[in-house]
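INFO batch 0412 | record 1 of 1 | parsing
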Amino acid sequence: MTMRRTLIFSLAALTTLLCAAAARAADDWHVEVEPDWRGYYRATSPIAARDFQRYLDALALREDQIDMANDLYLAFENEIRDMSTLMREQRSDLQSAFQPDEKKQRKAQQARIKLTERFDARAKDLTQRLFADLRLTLTTEQEQAWQDLEQLRRRRETLTRFAAYPSENIDLAVIIDGIDMPQEVRDSLQNTLDNYLVELDNAVAMRNAKVESLSGPAREVVALRRETWSTEDQADRNKLERRIASRQEKLVSDAEQLRDLCKRVKDINDRYAQQISLGLSADLLPRFERRIGQVIDKNDDDDWSDYNRARWAIRSIERLEYEKPIAELELRAYGEDHDYYQRQADRLRAVPGLSERQSQEVATLKSEFETEYEALRKRHNQKARRPKNPSQFEFQLDGARLTLYQGDRPMRYWERWEEQEPSEDFKRDDADLSQRYIDRLRQILTLEQRSYIANH
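INFO prediction complete | emitting C-alpha cells
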C-alpha cells in the first residue's frame, strides 16, 4: 500500500513538473526566419524622386548645383530601371521555362533568387555612389549640412521599413509640415520638433544598427532554408532543419533587443505627439490627430479594412481623371469588340471632369468628412482591425524577415488579424454620416458626374 501511494505521488509530481515546463515553454520567446518575399520583383528606384528633392532642399544648393544633382539622379534612376528590366526578364524566362522534374524546378528557383540578390547588391552600390558623387559637388559651407541630410535619409528611408509597432511609423515633422497652420503656431512648435528630431534620430540609428547586426546571421538561416528545398534525402533535410532551429534560437536575444529598440522609437513618437497636441488649438488638434490616425491605422494590404460609403464615393470622383486614360488603354489592349471594356470606356467618356471650383469644394468636403468620421470612430472606440496576438513581432531585415513570437509557432498572415464587429450604434451613426456627405457631394456634381458614383 505504501509503495502504491509513493508511486501515485511520484506520478503526480512528474505531471506537475511537465505541466510547469510546458507552461514555461509557451511563455518563452522563439524566432522564425524566412526569405524576404516582399518586393520580390524590384521595379522602382530605391530612392524616390520626391525624397531626393527633399535632400537637395536640406543642402540649400545653388541652381547650377541642383541641375548637376538632378542629372546624377536621372542617370542613377535610368541605370536602376534598366537593371530591373533585365533582371525581371531573366526571372520571367526562368520561371516560364519547362522543367522536367522537381530537382530542376528547385534549381531554377534558386537561380531566380540569386538574380534578385545581385540586383539588390548592385542597387545598394549605386545608391552609395549617387550620394558620394552628390557630396563632391558641395562647397565647404554646404558640407556642414551633410549630417542633417543623413538624419533626413534615416527617417525617410528606414523609419517605416524597419518598424515593428504601428506608431513607430510616425514622422511628426512631416505631419506638422503637412498641416496648414498660422506661422506663429508653427514657430511655437519648432523647439519641440528640434528636440524630437534629435531623440528620434538617435533611437532610429540604434535600431538600424541592431537590424544590420541581425541581418547577416538571418541571411545565413535563409541560405540553410533554401538548401533544404534542393535536398532530396530526408535524413539530410532533417539535419538541416535541426541546424536551422539551432541558429534561430541563438537569435532570440538579439531579436528581443531589437523589439525593445523599436519600442523606444514608438515611445518617443507617442511622447512628443502628446506634447505637440497640447500646443495646438481646438481647430488644429483634430487635423493633427487624424493625420496620426491615418498613419497608425493604414493597412495597404486591405483597402476594404476601413470601408465607408462616403469615403469611397469621394475617392472615386477624385480619381475620375486618372481612371479615364486607364479605361482607354484597357480598351485598346483587349479590343473594341470586348463588351465590358467598351462599356467602361463609353461610360467614362460621358462623364465630364471636375472644374476647378468643384475640385476645391470636393477637397473641402473630404477634409470635413475625415474630421467627422475620425471623431465618430473615436466616440465609438472603433478600430478597423486589431492584431489577435500582441506577443508576436515582425521585423523586416536586410535580405530576410524575422518573426519573434511566443507559443508553438508564429501566427500566419491570415491568422494575425480579427475584424472588430461594429456596434449597432456605430452602424447607425456611420450610415447617417455617410448619407449626409453623399447628399452634399451630389449637390457639388452635375447629373453626368453623379452617374459615376451612383452605386455608392
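INFO post-check: The longest helix spans residues 183-229.
INFO record closed
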